[in-house]
């Protein structure tokens, strides 16, 4: 098995016909068929069901394709890096973020960075912390924002933000007249919660047990953006990451401090011993100033309401 076999397999998975795969590779249909057959023989896998004259990928083919695509992503990054060396003004910086920072916050970061480097493209990936961490470790991403609840030992990690959760209330809610929401205030109220594993990580499970809130939970979600949307629709009361709260400043959502505090800790991770980059340094500075601006806007909203 060599790169020719993998290229033929990938082209066939992407196009689903030997004719189109041959066009992509600049070769003949028979060559594509032979290479894929050789791959099946060498791996002892049946990658395509050839019944009724059609090529239908098997479960093994889909599993292999996922791994192939991961490898190709790395090759694409190498190719991109080489092009950036030749023309640094046309660089692409790939970054990743957990969802709480991946919406309004990063849109504002991109606007600020673009003002400094109009020719440099930012490519943003949002997702779970472990996904972002893995892509940083493999140099698919130059920088990532993740929670402190995962293992980041294989990266260079520094603290980016440690912020207390904010209580979010529907517009017109009776508790909106309070400047600080406390545990006792929530008795009898419909509560929105996070998934159990996230509650454990953030210490919310202990809080819920103390306030006997579990029986009041009416809905759960994984991300702050989902909790905020449900609060807006008057499903219940929830807690938001302060940066996610920024995404709701144009709505009539009521934001209040909550006691006792529940901190969200976010880390900035980069690949180990990454090469110095002035553009990446500028991006980090924009991220830091944007965080200050976002938190200031959220604070102003809580004081004004």
UniProtKB/TrEMBL annotation:
Residues 1-58 form the HTH lysR-type domain. GO terms for biological process: lysine biosynthetic process via diaminopimelate; positive regulation of gene expression. One of its GO terms (molecular function) is sequence-specific DNA binding. Pfam families: HTH_1, LysR_substrate. Keywords: DNA-binding, Transcription, Transcription regulation. Gene3D superfamilies: 3.40.190.290, Winged helix-like DNA-binding domain superfamily/Winged helix DNA-binding domain. Belongs to the LysR transcriptional regulatory family. This is LysR family transcriptional regulator. It comes from Pandoraea eparura.
